[in-house]
Design goal:
This protein is globular. Helix 4 (123-135) crosses helix 8. It is α/β, with parallel strands linked by helices. It is built from 11 helices and 13 strands. The structure holds guanosine-5'-triphosphate (GTP), magnesium ion and zinc ion. Residues 145-146, 148-149, 173-175, 199-205, 218-221, 223, 228-232, 250-251 line the site of guanosine-5'-triphosphate (GTP).
């Protein structure tokens, strides 16, 4: 391999992206990874350059460039031409009544779900993040920070590990460089890790520890409660000492899920596995005879609270997805109307 292709591979470039370029583009364009998105441009890194380029024109919700994306840049003009199709994408429904999708990060290999050993810890929230990861087919890890502030973090570890078979749970002091070694398998050249979690849990602290640089601002050391101050305000990608990349994100107040039906099914596979043995295929697991889910709850194999969280998430996901679908359909309808008006005008001009 040439130096250039080595450097591209280290940025996360792979055949998935290379296959999207045609022969002409290979002559005139170069790929670059988006490190940060600003109103007036994109910070990108390519094989032999790094810097700010103009924003990428886009019209849909999801074809906007986000952190972690690969874009094609015109070699001469250094202008971004198009977005390459993603390997993975994290998104959520924008907060509140806004019927929009907010992109979190693209082309991520591993999702580090960060929470701390204190009041921030919440299994319902962890299940949401896990569903997000499973939908995107990205490996999730749970990171429990502030282990140094509690006598016995084992209750947190046990509660997190129970949420999915084989889930890797790391419990640590995010400021401790020794801790970084545990993430080595996910942080090598070409790999991309994204951090998500509430404000104040130590996401940027982890970035600083794993990059070995103090570039990301972290909340003041005197802050001692479980609620953060929203210190990080934008998403950005950072080169790790181990060669990979880490995406830091602002703390999320809420994570409204949409378009993640399969992800939820996956995280709650214990419930659908049990339900497969219910006598009635449309069993609602309330008081139907022969309900295997109720039987599992009575036997202590399944928590009533987990079933409740599952139902709540399924209902919310369905509501959010329907509302996004409705908006997209309306916008498509509007697009068609505009096109037909333009066409009608063209016809008139023809005469
Ligand atoms: N004792 C201890 N303090 C920690 C640990 N991790 C983070 N902190 C402290 O917690 C505070 C918040 O950390 P940040 O890294 O800014 O948190 P964040 O998740 O990036 O927060 P936002 O940017 O607001 O989303 C800082 O004062 C950190 O030094 C830890 O494991 N142990
Ligand atoms: Mg931060
Ligand atoms: Zn049932």
């Amino acid at each position: 391999m040439t130096d250039n292709s080595n450097r591209l591979a280290a940025l996360g470039w792979s055949n998935h992206f290379a296959a999207q370029l045609d022969a002409d583009e290979l002559q005139t364009h170069v790929p670059a990874r988006v490190l940060a998105v600003h109103r007036n441009g994109l910070d990108v890194a390519g094989a032999d350059f790094e810097g700010r380029v103009a924003p990428l024109p886009s019209d849909g919700d999801e074809d906007r460039a986000t952190v972690g994306d690969f874009v094609l840049i015109e070699r001469e003009m250094r202008r971004p031409r198009r977005l390459l199709s993603r390997k993975s994408l994290f998104k959520r429904k924008a907060a509140g009544a806004d019927r929009r999708v907010q992109l979190i990060a693209a082309n991520v290999d591993t999702l580090l779900i960060v929470t701390s050993c204190n009041r921030d810890f919440n299994v319902a929230r962890l299940e949401r993040y896990l569903a997000l990861a499973r939908e995107a087919e990205v490996t999730p890890l749970v990171v429990l920070t502030k282990a140094d502030l509690v006598d016995d973090p084992s209750v947190y570890i046990t509660a997190a590990a129970r949420l999915m078979p084989g889930l890797f749970v790391a419990c640590l002091d995010a400021r401790d460089p020794e801790a970084a070694a545990r993430f080595a398998p996910w942080c090598g050249p070409g790999q991309t890790v994204a951090l998500v979690g509430s404000s104040g849990v130590g996401k940027s602290t982890l970035v600083n520890t794993l990059t070995g640089e103090g570039r990301q601002a972290v909340a003041g050391i005197r802050e001692d409660d479980a609620h953060g101050r929203h210190t990080t305000t934008g998403r950005s990608m950072h080169r790790l000492a181990a060669g990979g990349f880490m995406i830091d994100t602002p703390g999320m107040r809420e994570l409204q899920l949409a378009d993640v039906e399969a992800g939820i099914e996956d995280v709650f596979a214990d419930i659908s596995d049990a339900a497969a043995a219910c006598r009635f295929t449309d069993c609602r697991h309330e008081n139907e005879p022969g309900c295997a889910v109720r039987a599992a709850i009575e036997a202590g194999a399944l928590g009533e609270d987990r079933l409740r969280r599952f139902r709540k998430l399924v209902a919310e996901e369905a509501r959010n997805s329907a509302s996004l679908r409705e908006r997209r359909a309306r916008e498509r309808g509007f697009g068609r109307m505009v096109k037909s008006i333009v066409k009608a005008k063209d016809t008139r001009w023809d005469r």
